[in-house]
Design a protein that fits this description.
By secondary structure, the chain is of the alpha+beta class. It is built from 5 helices and 17 strands. A 5-stranded antiparallel β-sheet has the order 9-10-17-12-15, with no helix packed on it. A hairpin with a 4-residue loop joins strand 7 and strand 8. The N and C termini lie far apart (45 Å).
């Protein structure tokens, strides 16, 4: 925290004159007008906390901020503070990573007449519609609902439609800040979600919290042959633990696979990705279980 009002505690920018002094927040931190506007645009309280720091940080700093928070706080406290139970019932053992309002377009004739179930705990195979988007404006209707993410699935619940998606079909690492997109082999679902980058930051931090809770640094590699192996939850240095190169990926438990390059940039890989590129000097962070097949040094 800065000791005077000349430095913003969020972006570290300095005030440039007498009339541009940074504002002091209720928790005793200083904040510039730009960072305050960013935090308010996300609907977050104007105070110094983890996600306020993340939405105002440079992209290459976000992963380090999450790691630093976990080094100085208990993972169990993170669950209680940032991932409280939602207002609807979940399946046993599920945690709610995200609960946001969402809208998507569907063909009017595809909307069921009956009302849908109201909670995730009541969802069964027969209560799922999985109605895809309609890109056409004519003859389509906007459906408003709630998009819930747990470590098991992504759920869209509305008055008459329930969609359930595997997490591996969610498109990540995009520059689209206003949508959450699910692309299956045969269907596409595009949910309008303001500030979807916060949606994915919450998901990413949960994976880190879960890794700490389950001692995921105690990793194991099961080697089938020189080019095939299975990685379990853990953090793997390249090339000390894994040889550099391109790997085909097959998910056994698609709970998250993340590559951090030598510069600290993080990219997430999921079931809908064909391969991963592991460069020397980086790390592979696994929060699920995956089969990897080395296919060469270059794509």
């Amino acid at each position: 925290m800065s000791k005077n009002n000349k430095v913003c505690d969020f972006c570290l920018s300095e005030a440039s004159g007498m009339f541009s002094r940074h504002e002091k927040t209720a928790d005793g931190h200083y904040i510039c007008k730009n960072c305050k506007a960013i935090i308010q645009s996300y609907g977050l309280p104007v105070k110094y906390d983890l996600f306020q720091a993340l939405v105002t940080a440079q992209p290459n700093m976000k992963d380090m901020i999450m790691d630093t928070w976990l080094e100085n706080n208990k993972a169990a406290d993170a669950l209680a503070k940032f991932y409280p139970l939602p207002q609807i019932l979940l399946h046993d053992g599920e945690h709610c990573l995200n609960a946001v309002k969402a809208v998507y377009n569907v063909k009017k004739e595809s909307i069921p007449q009956e009302f849908a179930v109201k909670s995730i705990a009541d969802i069964r195979k027969g209560t799922i519609q999985n109605i895809e988007d309609s890109p056409e404006r004519s003859g389509s209707e906007k459906v408003e609902g709630m998009l819930y993410e747990t470590e098991a699935a992504l759920y869209f619940l509305s008055e008459k439609i329930v969609n359930v998606h595997r997490l591996g079909y969610v498109k990540r690492n995009t520059k689209d800040m206003d949508h959450v997109v699910i692309q299956t082999p045969s269907k596409k679902f595009t949910y309008s979600v303001p500030h979807s980058d916060l949606f994915f930051m919450r998901e990413r931090f949960y994976q880190k919290v879960n890794a700490v809770l389950n001692n995921k640094r105690q990793h194991l590699i099961y080697i089938s042959d020189d080019n095939q192996l299975t990685v379990t939850p853990g953090i793997y240095d390249i090339p000390r633990t894994l040889k550099p190169g391109i790997y085909k990926v097959k998910a056994i438990n698609d709970a998250g696979l993340h590559v951090k390059d030598a510069l600290g940039h993080v990219k997430d890989y999921y079931e809908n990705e064909e391969s991963i590129d592991l460069s020397a000097g980086g790390t592979l962070e696994c929060t699920g279980e995956y089969k990897l097949e080395w296919v060469g040094d270059k794509k």
